[in-house]
């Protein structure tokens, strides 16, 4: 009989120390066409795909008295061109499985495309058609405008989708950052194709715009292709008025914008004030503190308003930085009967942030979380092309990416508490509440001077 010898080996394993890898921005080249168009080219050959991101100085800040004009103009770029009807454009994109979208937000308009590398010539020719030769077909325009009007009407049923515009209106007043990107039913209904053509001619210009292309291509060949395709884009002969750079209004008192929605069963609210520019040198530090305060599920706000008190299903805070200003807001929603308790709790958590500050353990947790979340933001060709566009628009250099982890690591407790005092507002806070005014007006009056309006109506400031 054979003897079986069993050997048991015990290994003592030291717990692994998890260190976030330092993310470095991949190399890319930049050149500028004679018409002023800036072009960024980044080769990423792992997957045979290309992404294009184009940023243009054609956002809602240029709407003037015609709210929604920038947004509708961007949407209408795809309604037909000199050489393609809308149907032909749609079929050409569908045939090769390409995605191409146009849109406008507060500061700029954008065109985004993603497609197989083998189809680059076809799609870039379509991009040229859409950007340089839109026709704004009257019949297609009326259909698009009606779709936009339906979307505006539906927003009345979704306070969380419309409240950011009310908040910006309260924070920025008559500054162009207070413009309403999606427009109103009245402003959209009055728009004509002549308005879109005038807006396009004034704002869809190569100088002040940037095209960022990331993916599987040769930079030398792509440069030649882009130069040939887009050199005929006419440069603007006059400098644009930098409307957004004008001074923001000073906030000297607490105000409440109460937006009545008669059938509301809950109150949706924002609490906040003006915030920071996107190129603020302490942007990373501010992001770390906000992560801890209201930027993740285990934040101070969510713990107090959801986990500990059950007043809401979720609460968060965010900085929305722009080129020349920005906003900070605490946002959540709650049942009508718990509106006052939820508001009081939100103010209490903000006051606690200021009065008690942070401790070493919570700061370390937030820093590790931010470092872990950073690299996945820039993995795909789409994400990288968007990043290059963002860097162009906000005048960011490579150091934002390449030194990110170092900036996170050097933030200490003393600096963190200084950041709280400097950038997290505590005085003259502004409040927007969308809910049933007859039930919550008396509550709203606790927090500042009340301005009342109806859902989908914006008062004069």
TrEMBL record:
<dbReference type="GO" id="GO:0046872">
    <property type="term" value="F:metal ion binding"/>
</dbReference>
<protein>
    <submittedName>
        <fullName>Insulinase family protein</fullName>
    </submittedName>
</protein>
<dbReference type="InterPro" id="IPR007863">
    <property type="entry name" value="Peptidase_M16_C"/>
</dbReference>
<dbReference type="Pfam" id="PF05193">
    <property type="entry name" value="Peptidase_M16_C"/>
</dbReference>
<dbReference type="Pfam" id="PF00675">
    <property type="entry name" value="Peptidase_M16"/>
</dbReference>
<feature type="domain" description="Peptidase M16 C-terminal">
    <location>
        <begin position="194"/>
        <end position="368"/>
    </location>
</feature>
<feature type="domain" description="Peptidase M16 N-terminal">
    <location>
        <begin position="45"/>
        <end position="163"/>
    </location>
</feature>
<dbReference type="InterPro" id="IPR011765">
    <property type="entry name" value="Pept_M16_N"/>
</dbReference>
<dbReference type="InterPro" id="IPR011249">
    <property type="entry name" value="Metalloenz_LuxS/M16"/>
</dbReference>
<dbReference type="InterPro" id="IPR050361">
    <property type="entry name" value="MPP/UQCRC_Complex"/>
</dbReference>
